[in-house]
Design a protein that fits this description.
This protein is mostly helical. 84% of the residues lie in helices and 0% in strands. The chain has a domain of 96 residues: Helix Hairpins.
Length: 140
């Protein structure tokens, strides 16, 4: 029987469980499990974490304002979120289309494009926030 994603999604959620503390705790357990999977298996996650660490260190060094911190943390978060979503997309595509498929490739390309775009926008934010500090440091 071929894999039917619509059937899988509907069958899994047929029983309404209601709200319980244990079900909420389980939700957090699965969320942390997903983060662990992401940060322990995805090389790009390590690169983004290194970049985030460097940016946070630069923010501390230059003493950026609270408003600048908001922009920096938002940019870091956006890149990590898009990378996590892209990883999920890749896992789903590999599950439903293990063989080469042109459409599956396009889906993966779109996910990767979202990560690239968020990283480029983070770089723009970084340039706008840190540019004046770097110019002052270099006395330009």
């Amino acid at each position: 029987m071929p894999f039917n994603l619509a059937y899988f999604c509907c069958v899994k959620n047929t029983k309404e469980k209601g709200f319980t503390i244990s079900s909420r705790a389980s939700s957090f357990k699965y969320a942390f499990k997903g983060l662990k999977l992401f940060f322990t298996t995805q090389h790009n996650a390590w690169i983004h974490l290194l970049a985030a660490f460097c940016v946070i260190a630069a923010g501390c060094f230059f003493g950026i304002s609270k408003t600048e911190w908001l922009f920096v943390i938002t940019a870091i978060s956006l890149v990590l979120i898009t990378e996590i979503v892209n990883t999920a997309i890749e896992f789903i595509v590999d599950l439903v289309s293990p063989e080469f498929n042109e459409t599956a490739g396009k889906i993966k390309d779109l996910g990767s494009g979202a990560v690239l775009f968020s990283a480029m926008m983070a770089a723009v934010i970084g340039a706008l926030v840190f540019g004046p500090y770097l110019l002052a440091l270099l006395k330009i």
